Amino acid sequence: MNPWRQKMPLEWQRYVNNEVKVVADEKRQYQGWVYTVDPVSASIVLVNPQEDGRAHVTVVMGHAVEKVELLQDGGEEIAQRLSSLFSPDGVQTVSREELQSKKGCLRAWLEKNRIPVTEEGEALCVAGVLRINPPFFKEVLTGLYSWASLHPLRSPPGLDRVPKSAELSG
What we know:
Domain AD: 69-167
Mean pLDDT: 80
Protein name: Gem-associated protein 6
Organism: Paramormyrops kingsleyae
Keywords: Cytoplasm, mRNA processing, mRNA splicing, Nucleus, Phosphoprotein
Number of helices: 5
Pfam families: Gemin6 (PF06372), Gemin6_C (PF20417)
């Protein structure tokens, strides 16, 4: 088995969002920004953004990888650019600060209305039966009951104003 495939997923993670040169079998060379590495096959997904806003994507199969050379650290700007290439149109990005603010406002509203709420990691757990996951819109509610049956009061601020989709940014 080649050394690339013997690496652990955390070792591959250091290549994500960075520019690399990959030497594959038959001495073929590929260069681009690593979008991800498949943890099962060790295949590398390379992205080369084009000037027209599109991207050229190359998948180098893990069994063919002979050597990976790190060329340039991409940083946060490249990470966001790569992520945006694969996001559906209309995705609203929510900053960590906005996310924490929404979570705090929602928790305060629940407590003000005497609804038991606890935090479970990034999510809020309501009455032990409903989870509200980031980015705290009603589309990300999971649990035994619907929000409407659990709570006859008007909806908390911001919970109804839902974009078509949302994602968390850095």
